Amino acid sequence: MPTLLIVEDNEMNRDMLSRRLQRRGYEVLMAADGAEGLAAARERLPDLVLMDMSLPVIDGWEVTRQLKSEVATRSIPVIALTAHAMSGDRQKAVDAGCDDFDTKPIELPRLLEKIAHWLGRAGGP
Asked: What sequence ranges are listed for the domain Response regulatory (predicted)?
C-alpha cells in the first residue's frame, strides 16, 4: 500500500483529503506545519508528499527545497497544493523542487490521476 504524506495546516482540508485517500487504498501520514512535514518525510520516507505551500513554521517552498537537497528524500515526488493559482506560482513550485502542482479547492479525480502518475500506477493503488 503506497504511503502519502499530507502536509497541510488546515485541519478540515487535512481530514477530508486523508479520508478520501484512505478509502482509495493509500496509507496516509499527516503533518500540520512545515517542520512536522519535514520531520515526517525524513523519518517515514513516504512514497509521495502532498505539500501545502502556505504553511506555518517553515513554508512549503522551503520544506520542498530541503527535501530535494537531501539524498534520502530527493526522489520522493512532491505535489504542491496551493490556493495560489497565478501563472508564476506553478514555476515557483517547480523552482522549489516540486514535481507537480495542483490548485485548491482540490478536484479529487485530477489529483488522483497525478498521484497515480507519480507513483507509476495506472488508476491508483
From this structure: 3-119
Three cell numbers at 122? Answer: 495506472
Query: Containing H/E element for 101?
Result: strand 100-103
- With the C-alpha atoms ordered 52, 44, 67, 79, is the resulting torsion angle positive or negative? negative
Q: Is this structure's pTM higher than 0.85?
A: yes
Distances from the Cα of 56 to the Cα of 76, 79, 85, 106, angstroms: 22, 18, 20, 20
Contact between 87 and 109 under an 8 Å Cβ cutoff? The reply is no
Residue type at 109 in one-letter notation: P
- Interatomic CA distance for residues 37 and 34, integer angstroms: 5
For 81-92, how does the pLDDT look when each residue is reduced to its tens digit (9 = 90+)? 988 767 788 888
Which homologous superfamily does the CATH classification assign to the domain defined by 3-119? Answer: Response regulator (3.40.50.2300)
Residues 41, 79: Cα–Cα separation, whole Å: 13
